[in-house]
Automatic annotation (TrEMBL):
TACO1/YebC-like second and third domain segment(s): 81-236
Main location: cytoplasm
Organism in which the protein naturally occurs: Limosilactobacillus secaliphilus
Localization, UniProt: Cytoplasm
One Pfam family of this chain: Transcrip_reg
GO MF assignments: DNA binding
Domain TACO1/YebC-like N-terminal: 5-75
UniProt KW keywords: Cytoplasm, DNA-binding, Transcription, Transcription regulation
Protein name listed in UniProt: Probable transcriptional regulatory protein IV45_GL001124
InterPro entries: Integrase-like_N, TACO1_YebC-like_2nd/3rd_dom, TACO1_YebC_N, Transcrip_reg_TACO1-like, Transcrip_reg_TACO1-like_dom3, YebC-like
Classification of source organism: Bacteria, Bacillati, Bacillota, Bacilli, Lactobacillales
């Protein structure tokens, strides 16, 4: 039994690491797409794209994943990609929004619906859960190596046009109106801050704990969505154990 327990623990840690890596790659892919779509697809002429590509290299993201995200933005190969959002409830009734970038809506809709169904959840109509989220600009600054108190960081954030800030042990999370994100980002960069994230996102108004007996199904749903190349982001209104502080 001890051997089985050790294997189970190792496999559990590996699954958690794979899920975390998948989430990082998913976010970088979206950032690559947005940077290439907004500017020149040549990183030599697009500082923002170059910055994201450096982040991809630091995360050991496969080169083919990087190129696929850029190809989506440029329409390489004649493909036309569209953004579409799916809403539903995961196991335990937890609200989940799935942002996709696809060249085949029928394929993507079927795959997303299947992920919800296989995990004991259900896909809903447009607007079924989006009212539970608030669209905000989000800027994240890592605290590692940053000699800045929370009060000083808050003052700089407010001066830059932010509305609110949340501090964790790892980072400062700065919230803005979506329309003020770009100006706040530029103002903070001019102050010398190295930004880890600057994006418009969906923040849940409230988070609910995933029932203990539904955790496995919930994690299966998120993992299956993260492994879908058409999925560019997942917004969750639920948390597992200590994840409510993230």
């Amino acid at each position: 039994m001890s051997g089985h327990s050790k294997w189970h623990n190792i496999q559990g840690r590996k699954n958690a690491q794979d899920a975390k890596r998948g989430k990082i790659f998913q976010k970088i892919s979206r950032d690559l797409y947005q940077a290439a779509k907004a500017g020149d697809p040549d990183p030599d002429n697009n500082p923002q794209l170059r910055l994201v590509m450096e982040k991809a290299r630091a995360a050991n993201m496969p080169k083919q994943n990087v190129q696929r995200a850029i190809d989506k933005a440029t329409g390489a190969g004649g493909a036309h990609f569209e953004e579409t959002t799916y809403e539903g409830y995961g196991p335990g009734g937890v609200a989940v929004m799935v942002l996709c970038l696809t060249d085949n809506k029928n394929r993507t809709a079927a795959a997303v619906r299947s992920a919800f169904t296989h995990s004991g959840g259900s896909l809903g109509a447009s607007g079924s859960v989006s009212y539970l989220f608030k669209r905000l600009g989000l800027i994240e600054i890592l605290r590692d190596g940053l000699d800045k108190s929370e009060d000083d960081m808050l003052m700089d954030a407010l001066d830059a046009g932010a509305d609110d800030m949340k501090a964790t042990d790892e980072k400062f999370q700065i919230f803005t109106d979506p329309s003020a994100l770009t100006s706040a980002r530029d103002a903070l960069q001019k102050k010398g801050y190295d930004l880890d994230t600057a994006e418009v996102t969906m923040i849940p108004e409230n988070k609910t704990k995933v029932p203990d007996d539904k955790v496995g199904q919930y994690e299966h749903l998120i993992n299956e969505l993260q492994n879908n190349d058409d999925v560019s982001d997942i917004y969750e209104a639920g948390y597992v154990e200590s994840d409510d502080e993230d």
